[in-house]
Each structure stands twice: as C-alpha cells, then as structure tokens.
UniProtKB/TrEMBL annotation:
Family the UniProt entry places it in: Belongs to the thioredoxin family.
Active site (record annotation): C28, C31
Keywords: Disulfide bond, Electron transport, Oxidoreductase, Redox-active center, Transport
UniProt site (Deprotonates C-terminal active site Cys): D22
UniProt name for this protein: Thioredoxin
Family matches, as PANTHER family: GEO12009P1
GO molecular function, one term: protein-disulfide reductase activity
InterPro entries reported in the protein's UniProt record: Thioredoxin, Thioredoxin-like_sf, Thioredoxin_CS, Thioredoxin_domain
Length: 105
C-alpha cells in the first residue's frame, strides 16, 4: 500500500501489527527491481505484518525526518517505533527472513 507522510504517521501510531515500510523513489533503478520482490514478500508476511511503500520523492520531509539516506531502504516498525532498518535492494526471501528475524528479537 502506497502512503503519504500524514498517513504513514497514522499507521505507525495506530497499528496493532508490525509495519514493514519500503522507502523508494520512481527514478531509482534498484527500487524498481525490488518492487516485485517486496510484493512477493507481502504475500508471505501478511496478515501478521502490514507492508507499506513511501515515495521519498513525494514525501521528502518524511524521508528527512526519519534520516533515510539511501533508497531503497526498508524500515520495520513495531509498537509505534522503528526496530530495524536495512538499506539496499533485497530478494523476497531475504526480505521475509530479515523481517522475521527482527520481529523475533
């Protein structure tokens, strides 16, 4: 699900389940490569994890606020706070494994 900065903050504050967020931009080649992998990971992680996408080109203030320095970057939120972050493109199996490992902590 693509979300704006305002919606992102609502999801983080109100979500009862963990959120995995893909910070990306339309001009980013690795982001485009990872998009189908992120969707495949969503199919494996849902409904226990909600997956969101934030376009950092359209939401530059949010990206700056969160300190997103490179894209793509995955960030995992649980209980209203960030618990893990991973820059760089990953395959769907890596996304699933990384998410589950960080939620088990």
């Amino acid at each position: 699900m693509e979300v704006s900065g305002a919606d992102f903050n609502k999801f983080v504050q109100r979500s009862d389940i963990p959120l995995l967020v893909d910070f990306w931009a339309p001009w980013c080649g690795p982001c485009k490569m990872m998009a189908p992998m992120f969707e495949a990971a969503a199919a494996q992680l849902a409904p226990s994890v909600r997956l969101l996408k934030v376009n950092t080109e359209e939401n530059q203030q949010l990206g700056a606020q969160l300190g997103i320095r490179s894209i793509p970057t995955l960030a995992l939120f649980k209980g209203g706070r960030e618990v893990a972050r991973q820059p760089g493109a990953m395959e769907s199996a890596q996304i699933v494994s990384w998410t589950r490992q960080n939620l088990a902590r």
